[in-house]
TrEMBL record:
Alphabetical keyword list: Membrane, Transmembrane, Transmembrane helix
Protein name, entry field: Uncharacterized protein
Chain segments carrying region Disordered: 217-249
Segments of skewed composition (Low complexity): 221-239
Membrane-traversing stretches: 117-139, 193-210
Organism of provenance: Nocardioides humi
């Protein structure tokens, strides 16, 4: 079967999400025990699948912005509202097909969280550097183009002068504000905020995703047995300090 496959065993039933290319977009199919219950074609980055019958929950899929595997496939008890940033809390994550790119990415998050954070942050840094390089190249190209000298017509606009209003001369008191000098590093951050902020956000998102994936390991095991209190137990065990490695599932 071609495409990208994600699996989840929940309460004795086998859920499967297949993601495949469909022209410029993606085709998503949700099957339960081999029977298709939902399908959708989309160009969106955040997608939600709902079965035709009510009460079957929903599946939230976060697709990559450009290339690569899906970033997240999550089963939800109830359909979620995807307005705004599309942040969907809770749910139980599907497991990617063993050996796939998504599976290698997830294992890297679980066993090497610091390496994953470094790679995600490095990707943000690379994106900033590439944007600066493209802007520099475009500026050089624009300067190098021999633009023709177009004689624009001169429009004789009328000389309209507004009457001068005699504003009163008010002598305002001088307030002795304190001379506050920001540190050099803080001034540099403020001057380069549009480049620094994406890197900080990428670091924070990577760390949060590592913690979330660790909680999901227990949720998936409990979902396979139909445990009702999976979320509470996983949350209690998910607050451990992250290290260079995590226990294998």
């Amino acid at each position: 079967m071609a495409g990208e496959l994600w699996h989840l065993d929940r309460a004795g039933r086998r859920h499967e999400i297949e993601i495949s290319d469909a022209g410029l977009g993606k085709r998503l199919v949700w099957r339960v025990d081999g029977e298709q219950i939902a399908e959708r074609r989309t160009h969106d980055e955040r997608v939600q699948l709902t079965p035709e019958e009510d009460g079957g929950g929903a599946v939230f899929v976060r697709l990559p912005r450009f290339l690569g595997p899906a970033r997240r496939v999550t089963w939800l008890e109830e359909p979620a509202e995807l307005a705004g940033a599309g942040v969907v809390p809770g749910g139980v994550d599907f497991r990617p097909e063993p050996g796939s790119r998504a599976d290698r990415r997830e294992r890297r998050m679980l066993h090497h969280p610091r390496l994953h954070t470094f790679l995600e942050t490095g990707g943000a840094v690379l994106g900033v550097l590439l944007s600066l390089l493209v802007a520099w190249l475009l500026a050089r190209v624009v300067i190098a183009i021999p633009w023709p000298d177009i004689p624009w017509p001169s429009i004789p606009w009328p000389d309209i002068r507004l009457p001068r209003i005699p504003w009163p001369d008010i002598d305002l008191p001088t307030i002795p504000w304190p001379d506050l000098a920001l540190p050099a590093w803080l001034r540099w951050l403020l001057d380069n905020a549009k480049y620094v902020v994406p890197v900080i956000v990428a670091f924070a998102v990577a760390r949060a995703e590592v913690r979330r994936r660790r909680r999901q390991e227990q949720l998936r095991r409990q979902a396979a047995n139909g445990t009702e209190n999976a979320t509470e137990n996983a949350t209690a065990n998910g607050g451990q300090e992250e290290g260079d490695s995590a226990p294998a599932p």
